[in-house]
Amino acid sequence: MWTRSFFILVVLFFCIDSVFAQDIEVKKFETLEKDQTAVSFPRMDINGNGCGLVKVVLKEFGAEFEGNVMGEVQFTGSEYLVYMPNGSKRLGIKHPDYLPTTIVFADYGIKRIASSTTYELKVKTNKKKAKVDNSKKGMAVFNIKPSNAMLLIDGQIADGSCGAYTLSLPYGTHYYTVKLNDFSINNQVVQIDKNAKNINVDLTEFYAKVSINCPTGDAELSINGEQKGEGKWEGMMIPGKYTVKASKDGCHSQTRQIELKDNDNVTVDFTKLKTITGSLQVDFEPAGADVLLNGKKVGVTPLVLKELPVGNYQLEIWKEYYVKEFAKVKIAEDQVWKENGELILTQFGKMMVNAEHNKPVKYIGNSALSLAEYYRYGAASGVYGTHWSCVKDTFHVPMNPVKAVYWLKKVVEEGDDYESKDAIEMLGPCYPNDVDEAKLSFCWAKHAVEEMGEEYKYNSQLWQFYRCPYAALAWHYFYGVGCEKNIEEAYKLMRWSCTSEGEYSYPAYIEIIKDMNLDSELKFNAKLREDDEQEFLRMNKDE
Fold this sequence. Notes:
- There is one protein chain.
- With about 550 residues, this protein is α+β, with helices and mostly antiparallel strands.
- Helix content is about 25%, strand content about 35%.
- The chain is built from eleven helices and 30 strands.
- Strands 9, 10, 11, 12, 13 and 14 form a six-stranded mixed β-sheet that branches. A five-stranded mixed β-sheet has the order 1-8-2-5-4. A four-stranded antiparallel β-sheet has the order 17-16-19-20, with no helix packed on it.
- The longest helix is centred in the C-terminal third of the chain and has 17 residues.
- About 30% of the residues are buried.
């Protein structure tokens, strides 16, 4: 790597014949010991420390300054007031009437700008314009480090790659600028003639390399508030003090203070950002009820969830045979959100409890027949009695032909002759050849559909009563229970279970239709059920 003194000698060697064309020249750069302007009219850097003030004596309006400049530059008519943070080492000056230049403070006996100190930079301008001879051209070879720095010749971006530039330029005086991160670190003049020029510019001596890493891959990385990327970033920075930050919505941010020096190689490693969390406590009876957050099961009651990311959630508490409870939850930092209550046992649940715990044969039989109908239709009705008032309570009861067959078998095994006869008719000829409920249920549904054919497909009368086998068989094909999966056949059968307008009335169908993603096509219509009941009663009366 080039030392700074050798770098300056190299530049001077190639510029010695054209100093006259350096339009902005430094006459003097010194500290104004008695000038208290930087103290009386202070400007703070990003770390809250007072900036140093450089008074650039230049009467021409329109100058621009590049480098570690804090805030707007004020022009008084005879000088520019340039505030720079403690530790700044150079300043670039550009003006449309002159060639640009960069002043390295150490070249004039001041290593770096001190906090709350006033300086004076006197410059001399020369409006003599450099001339070129376009009839003759010479060769200039630039080698620039780091390789991602940009080279501009006479204000135009030069063609090159990986820091190597071989240029054919007209005879005469040209100025070049080497830029990195939008800072003109080197503005110099080169005289092109018959002798080829080799120019080496090593900016790494004037810059520090910075690498930032955060294991939270989508964390936003910033330096002094300027966004640099996500997760990882690497680049060259001007020496000075900086605040590096890693942040992400919903997480605690982390900051690091760094001070860069010339040719530093600094790595900033953050730890994984900690999620901002709160807690949720759910105490619902009965114990063992499923708890879902945003549709995903997270446990059973009683439940305490700690370190839950802050935000809004949809809470569901559900247990079979009980009415589902819903609640909106807002988790706040370091707070516990509590949800307490008791689930209501549905009419269906009460029937299930009676069937499970009461042993008289006849009572079990009646209850079992009703339960079988709930699992087949979603609401008990027909020859075993109407329970229309319970329909709303059974919305959560999914269709399950396997459970329907289970309860029908209990009727056959424990019921009286009348109930056994009706149950066998419902099960079809497959019973009792197969003792496995899943295969038995599939066998019954498949036989019933084959026996019925499509004669009831578009029957406007009592279609819900007759179409149950279609839905039952669709259930088996879709979930692959008791048979091999056949999704297309399941779709066809489920559509047959509805009216020609795609409407159905059994709440038990809701779950399978949702799983099939047919809920936008097939719609629940409770009134159809009432129409069927009235039609059934009318037909029985006529008979």
